[in-house]
Amino acid sequence: MHSNIIKMKKKHNRILLALLSLPIILSGSQNNEFDYEFIQDGNCYSFRGSFIVQAERDCLIDVIFNFEHISKYATEAESVELAQQGENWNEVTYTYRKLLILENKSTWRRTLKRDEQKVIFEMISSKNNVSFMPQLLSSSGYYQIKPEKEGYRIEYFQECKLKTGLLKDAYISQAKKGAIKFLREFKKYVERTCHQSDSKKI
Q1: Cβ-count burial of 70 within 10 angstroms (0-12 exposed, 13-18 middle, 19+ buried)?
Q2: Sheet holding 89-98: strands in order across?
Q3: Pairing mode of beta strands 79-85, 44-53
Q4: Where in the sequence is the domain holding 60, given as residue range(s)?
Q5: CA 148, CA 46: separation in Å to the nearest integer?
Q6: Residue 100 — left, alpha, or beta (φ > 0 → left; ψ -120 to 50 → alpha)?
Q7: What is the largest CA-CA distance in the chain?
Q8: 13 in any annotated domain
Q9: What is the dihedral of CA 49, 55, 60, 63, to 10 degrees?
Q10: Residue 14 in domain
């Protein structure tokens, strides 16, 4: 009897350990507005969202890649500045402020892969104005345009890694809210700028 109880406890502990080691899906949604999924795994988190729009493909590429559009849908940023650019790439610096005194400035390299209908991005620097703010160690992702029967699906994906800190969970909670708001604003801007009722796929 005693040995059976010990075996059951060991089995329970193994199951609990396996569950704790799995990624935590914090949130997901599938509705008429857009689909998204936010996943946290320790100090790492990722966001994937998508929506369908009827539009010309070239207009979608232009909105996603060209700098003059970015500040119009990156509405959470205090400022958006073009650092430098080439034929199929640009580097953009974003400044974000929270609670009046907290500031982060980060620069991202964005590369257009036209054959893949994709823009990839990677953070190349990030600096906080105070030391107790969670430090973003790395981040990368992409926008991709995929043809579908109803039009084009735009998929946005970003993954991030944070340095361990006291405010990590609060930072991730804010990152989730910010990502959802960004996707909503981005979708509205795309629809206003590129929408047409009878777009043809190129």
Answers
A1: buried
A2: 24-30, 35-41, 44-53, 151-162, 136-148, 118-128, 102-113, 89-98, 79-85
A3: unpaired
A4: 24-194
A5: 25
A6: left
A7: 74
A8: no
A9: -100
A10: no
Length of the chain in terms of residues written: 202
Specify the 3-state DSSP secondary structure of 56: coil
How far is residue 132's CA from residue 99's CA, in Å, rounded to a whole number? 14
User: Cα–Cα distances in Å, from 178 out to 77, 84, 103?
Assistant: 10, 26, 15
Any domain includes 7: no
The total of structural domains in the chain comes to: 1
Give me the tens of pLDDT residue by residue for the chain, a chain 202 residues long. 545 544 454 444 444 344 334 445 555 565 567 899 999 999 999 999 999 999 999 999 999 999 999 989 998 899 999 999 999 999 999 999 876 788 999 999 999 999 999 999 999 999 999 888 889 999 999 999 999 998 999 999 999 999 987 788 888 998 999 999 999 999 999 999 997 644 344 3
Alpha-carbon distance 167 to 121, whole Å? Answer: 26
Is the distance from CB of 77 to CB of 95 less than 8 angstroms? yes
